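note to self: the first set is below, dont mix up w the second
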Amino acid sequence: MNQAITVEIALPAPRPQRSGQTRPAKRPHPFVAAGGAGALKLVLALTLLLGLVACKQEQPVYNARFLAFGTLVDISLIRISRADAERVVAAIEQDFTAMDRAWHAWRPGPLGRVNRLLPSGDWFAAPPSVLPLVKLGQRYARQSDDLFDPAIGRLIALWGFHKDHPECRPPPPKEEIERLVRAHPRMSDIDVKGIMMRSRNPAVQLDFGAFAKGYGIDRAIDHLREMGVRNAIVNAGGDLRAIGSREGRPWRIAIRAPSGGSTLGFVEVSGDESVFTSGDYERNFIYRGQTYHHIIDPRTGYPARGFHSVTVIHTDGATADAAATALFVAGPKRWVEIARRMGVHEVLAVDYAGTLHMTPAMAKRVRLLEHNPDISLSEPL
């Protein structure tokens, strides 16, 4: 926006003239001499200066988008100059590219190397990019009674979800599913000593897809803060973490309906909060009228049943991401127990009958779009 700017130049007061002294003739100011050429230079100089100032002006909101983790990542930055915003976004995009490459479950990279070495049972040096997720995955597995289980990569691959686009195909043979379930791969099968790790179960194959996005968003938020950003939102395919505020107002976040194509309601977040949803509409295929989704129940080897979607609000993205998956697998009967064990207090789940299962803390915050929905409130967590 062009702004009219008034520049006042203070000139020195004239000296008092002594008696009998003749005041010298005035000389033209260098900027107005030579037929006004100097004045033109002054105008051009001021124009250039004001243009540079305008380039540094902060924008109310700077938005950017790039692809990572197989989804679109949207970043919104508040009150930051365009030049600084572009620099910040470039750094965050590099972070996401590196994390995606390091943690990809079926492309060559550090995690692929780990999965090749795990069946041997021998100790090996864990890649620095992978080891933190192994430790965090073990913690979430313990808290969730192994309903969250990143060790079932072989089952996920068996179902055909180690592809960018799942194919419409028959389900895997029952015998192969049962064989992997009997092998019972768990995160507790992995031993970690310093930077060394091994697996005591050759069936273990790691797949961090259930919480890598949340962990990656957490690392991105850490980097944003290191670069001086205090108000921002990082949104990866609808899962997000927001810090600060939107110019003093909370961030308004939509919760997707189980259909995947509409909005169930809204929540307002501010300060530092993450909102993550696991749903059967995200990655799936349909075979003979039956939908098979990517959230596999490690107890049965089949896609988890009971909920269409689970939304969790928590301070950090990794916990919200892992808890949404664990509660989805837990289903209507165990979700309250698992939520309490994982330390999450704000949960919204939708079952097959359309009933909304909520914690009291979530019920106080969510603004539902549907009138008079069927709501089941849990006890306070």
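second set (the one i keep forgetting abt)
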Amino acid sequence: MKDTTDKYQNKPLSHESTSLTQAPPDDVQTAPKYELSSGGDYAEPHPQELALEVRGLWTGYNGHPALENINLKVAQGEIVGVIGPNGSGKSTLMKAILGLVKPWKGGAYVMGQPAATRRRIVGYMPQMEDVDWEFPVTVRDVALMGRYSGRGLLRRTNREDRDASDAALQRVGMHDLGERLIGELSGGQRRRVLLARALANDPVLLLLDEPVAGLDATAQHRFLDTVDELRSEGKTVVLSTHDLSCVSEWCGKAACLNRTLIAYGPPGEILDEQVLSETFGSHLLLVHTDGRAYAYEHHRHDTASDVETEGEAGT
């Protein structure tokens, strides 16, 4: 059974931006309430086992909704892959969980508490283009930034912070490059450094925004191997991607998003032609390369130059 409670109704997409209104349009106040998504034909997790719950979440920018009535539950130790076209609200969902975007209605809960009060146990990895890779900081500096949420920007880091960030670099295989400038790293190395930053505060929940975009198959596999190991150690992971094969192979559940939640459940049960068409609409273009399937918008022109490899840049 597919969970298609909250279907996309061919409404125009709003583009994600940095300007946020404080109140939703009037029609949001009278929006219908739906039951929480069960996600498919499997046992519903007990509330105490939930790492993340999103309840009736509405939010947007400049008075235009980016997310409408999002409901989903993520159990501890799961990997959930969020797919959808550009502008569908994938990044907005993560920012709402982080408290970087204010909900208009509803909210998100981490380990049973409002997400805004649980920021220290959530690790976040932004998209590559959101990072200034020319800024003169080292790999170790970036990893240490992951400790700021627990200590504050104006407080000096201590030995505990340095040990924790070094352990995070060791965990992702980047400790030996600790003194290298981030601008000298390859695409795969940069992602692992960002993952180390997200891990430095020992989070319960990891939010990874397009973590494997542009990587070749080898670099993707190496990164996702690490993510799966983290899951086996008890971490919960929510990641966004255009790579349908990634979701099918590595994620226990898929969330198909296009401003509303189109479907949520095991990839093998929900990722069919109907759901993908509803998720991507007329923009859907399936591209097969290296034995993998990617969902793109039809007007996008990806070239070989956009693909980054795992090679040791700057060596």
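remember for set 2: The chain has one domain: 26-306.
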